[in-house]
Amino acid sequence: MQHSILDIQMPVMDGFEVVQRLRELTKFQFLPILLVTSFDYGIDKINVIKCDRFIHKPIDIDTVTYKMREILDWNS
Length: 76
What we know:
Layout: E1 4-7, H1 15-24, E2 33-37, H2 43-49, E3 53-56, H3 61-75
Parallel strand pairs: 1-2, 2-3
């Protein structure tokens, strides 16, 4: 299964725009997406942009692994 981990702050377009554009394409409507950020966003923002989870920086590999397993289990 494909999945995506995106940082919110990226050059050219931010993670929110990437998610929005992906969700507009039928092929990627259900792509599991984990957004990484140093900002404090709540559950409302997750629902609005249609990503599966947020993770806050600094990150550790155990947290990333746990969140991705959560997303993949939920989407299977």
